[in-house]
Amino acid sequence: MITLYAATSNPGKLRDFAAAAAKEIDASIQPLPGLDRIAPPAEDEPTFEGNARTKAIYYSRFLPGAIVVADDSGLEVDALGGEPGVRSARYAADAGFVPRSDTNIDQRNNLYLLTRLEGVPANQRSGRYRCALAAARDGECVHTADGSVEGQILTAPRGNGGFGYDPLFYLPELGKTMAEIDLATKHKLSHRGRALRALLVAPHSLQS
Fold it and tell me: Is the pTM of this model over 0.70?
């Protein structure tokens, strides 16, 4: 069995990765040991792949000989010229947008996105989730992959599942948001699942 160590403490991401890996080759996804004690690198690259590569290379130095996987993912909205893009997790914070003290980071990002899209008609609210993954060993990137899923941005959140922008990300073919679908369906079509499957099925470099 191949064991990959994910450089993330996000429980949603870890759940997505573990479920996607179980559907593919004989692989196990584990959290990187001691991640909470490692100072994070700067995420200042202009692309998802650039940030994923930077993180994978950096964190792989803390677990010699192992394959460390890092991702950078987010939402691109066409009407906003691709925003929030690589700043998806920090979208509201970057703008100094704090609607209420009782909102969490995801809620603030969703509320800020809605303010940015005020007045934009439904047929112009297209966007996509994108995920770039990089795998590295001993400070060297050995493979990259990406995945995406197309959708539309609603005018109000729907659903209690998922995380991030899931309550606003509507999948027309299913008639549901990413926050309304079951986990099995999400892992099958999500950008993160697609990126991980692409990473796992191709490279011999992960097994050498």
Answer: yes
